[in-house]
Design a protein that fits this description.
Shape: globular
Strand order of the largest sheet: 1-2-3-4-6-5
Distance between the termini: 26 Å
Protein name: GNAT family N-acetyltransferase
Keywords: Acyltransferase, Transferase
Order of helices and strands: HHHEEHEHEHEE
Low-confidence stretches: none
InterPro entries: Acyl_CoA_acyltransferase, GNAT_dom, NAT_camello-type
Strand content: 25-35%
Structural class: alpha+beta
Mean pLDDT: 93
Helix content: 25-40%
EC number: 2.3.-.-
Organism: Streptomyces viridiviolaceus
């Protein structure tokens, strides 16, 4: 996950955005309604991740109406769905998302599934558009906001 924020996002590690990457157990394994999936290849190398937690998007930095639509506790937020470039376009991300959605459905307490993505990451926006509905595209705001696209993912 840390490789992704450096390579794909170009931001490097930013504590207020990426603290869960440094403490994945505290963020995704200890809390009962959270999970972290890790995909490994035959050599045991991590090639993909996907996580889910019960924290809705915060305002700020996200638009107020998005935060109000997806409150913490009843929103499953998909996070850290990353696949290493050499393993993309093989259905791995879709499989990770399917497993995360099954986890959310089994929980029974989630009313919605939300995620946001940076469309500058190669393949991210078309992938999420194939699975989810755009609820807010910050690029359409005056000044372009942060350029983030917010999605509602259908519960399965």
């Amino acid at each position: 996950m840390l490789d992704t924020v450096y390579r794909d996002f170009g931001t490097g590690y930013v504590p207020r955005w990426h603290g869960d990457i440094i403490d994945p157990a505290g963020a995704y394994l200890v809390p009962e309604r959270h999970t972290l999936l890790v995909a490994v290849d035959k050599a045991g190398e991590v090639v993909g991740t996907g996580a889910l937690d019960s924290r809705g998007p915060a305002h700020p930095p996200n638009p107020r109406h998005v935060a109000e639509r997806y409150p913490s506790g009843v929103t499953a937020q998909l996070r850290r769905v990353y696949v290493r470039p050499g393993h993309r376009r093989r259905g791995l991300a879709r499989r990770l998302v399917d497993e995360l959605l099954a986890f959310a459905a089994a929980d029974g307490g989630y009313r919605a599934v939300y995620l946001h993505t940076d469309p500058a990451v190669t393949g991210a926006e078309p992938f999420w558009r194939s699975l989810a509905k755009v609820v807010h595209d910050e690029r359409e705001e005056a000044g372009g906001g942060e350029g983030i696209v917010h999605f509602d993912v259908p519960m399965r």
